[in-house]
Amino acid sequence: MTPDFGPSTPLTPPIHLSAVYRIPDLDAVDAIYGGTAPGYIYARDGHPNATVLADELRDAHRAAWGVVTGTGMGAIAAPLLALLAKGDRIVSSNRIYGKTTKLFRAEFDKFGITTSWVDSNDLDAVARALTEAPTKILFVETISNPLCRVADLPALTELAHRYAALLFVDNTFASPVLCRPHEFGADLVMESLTKMIGGHSDVTMGFVSGANPALHAPIASATSTWGLAANPFDCWLVQRGMATMELRMRTANTNADKIAAWLVSHPAVKRVVHPSRADHPDYELAKRILPNGVGNMLCFELADREAVNRWMRATPAVPFCPSLGHHETTCSHPDTTSHRFDPSSEKLAQGITPGLVRLSVGCEPFEKLAAAMEAGLR
Ligand SMILES: Cc1ncc(COP(=O)(O)O)c(C=O)c1O
């Protein structure tokens, strides 16, 4: 069954596709379930590719443990399903990915888990929200989707802990290359591996890590029981992406800084949003939270929705793909995709206008990217 490699070993890790494992006897199955012997039983509960990837990401995040999930949304849902019950309360930043808003509003609400929304850059407002009622989770994004507001993670940790809540951070826009929220005290950190960590738009996966070892078992168990586990091939693809994650993130980050500076002076562009720009509301905060770079995500605003349509049609080299983190630059339109289901009034209050384009800057040469952007803007 297992090939005999002799003295050699494969350089790249194998993929263990088996959905289930042969176990010699009942004592062995008891030992594996009991955790007194290593081993696997059923792939939804665990498999070697998930272990290897989760350990690598755990180390990248300097966490106590890590669990991989089939999507980024699974990595948000699993800890909440594990740790919350009817009557519990989440306080969430009001500037987050639209599907996360929907998860809290439309799904957790059904189970009697309520969410209060707060401007998480207003620390007084966060403190007030935490005093209003007992809170289990304070949820924020390190760099918010799409307008790149930066979370003051040390201050938010202090507030969450003062009121006996856990700080849960979505670190997707930053990746562990730019930010490791556990080092600021965050209790739970998640990543959509679909994005910059996978890096090739060929896999959907998520990851959640924790600082407290006691939370590992319940969250791993919820991941299996709610059917949120990741499959071996996807884990293998993300592990391959991890090998170049740092190189890609750094190159894309440098490109994003340059593209932001270039777009600012373009007459067709009304507004550029990137924390590398001095007019960004979190320009100073970003230096503290993201000292190695503020990320590859930026937004720019054109006149209106029709101007965006025309720009997209004229810029095939920057494909309109409602995702992010690809190794080449793509664009998206938060109003009609990632934040489609948010009420228009909330979107406009945040600055998500019909003319707003979100760029996920990639690793191609800057000159090539600028030429493609210029052609469309003209
Ligand atoms: C900030 C953020 N968090 C979480 C997710 C969800 O990740 P996934 O699409 O892998 O479920 C996304 C997806 O776009 C995202 O942008």
The major sheet is characterized as: 7 strands, mixed
Number of domains: 2
Name given to the CATH homologous superfamily of the largest domain: Type I PLP-dependent aspartate aminotransferase-like (Major domain)
**In which order are the strands of the major sheet placed?**
1-7-6-5-4-2-3
CATH class of the largest domain: Alpha Beta
Bound molecules: pyridoxal-5'-phosphate
User: What's the shape?
Assistant: globular
Q: Gyration radius, to the nearest Å?
A: 21 Å
Number of helices: 13
Structural class assignment = alpha/beta
Question: Helicity range of the residues?
Answer: 25-40%
What are its keywords?
378 residues; alpha/beta; Aspartate Aminotransferase, domain 2; Aspartate Aminotransferase, domain 1; 2 domains; 39% helix; binds pyridoxal-5'-phosphate
Note down, in words, how this protein is organized:
The chain has 378 residues and is an alpha/beta fold. The chain folds into two domains: 45-239, 3-Layer(aba) Sandwich (Aspartate Aminotransferase, domain 2), CATH 3.40.640; 245-377, Aspartate Aminotransferase, domain 1. It is 39% helix and 13% strand. It has helices at 26-34, 48-60, 72-83, 98-107, 123-132, 153-162, 175-178, 216-225, 232-264, 283-289, 305-313, 344-350, 366-377; strands spanning 65-69, 89-93, 114-118, 137-141, 166-170, 188-192, 206-210, 271-273, 297-301, 330-332, 356-360. The strands form two sheets. A seven-stranded mixed beta sheet has the order 1-7-6-5-4-2-3, with helices on both faces. Pyridoxal-5'-phosphate binds at residues 71-73, 97, 141, 145, 170, 172-173, 192, 194, 204, 206, 338.
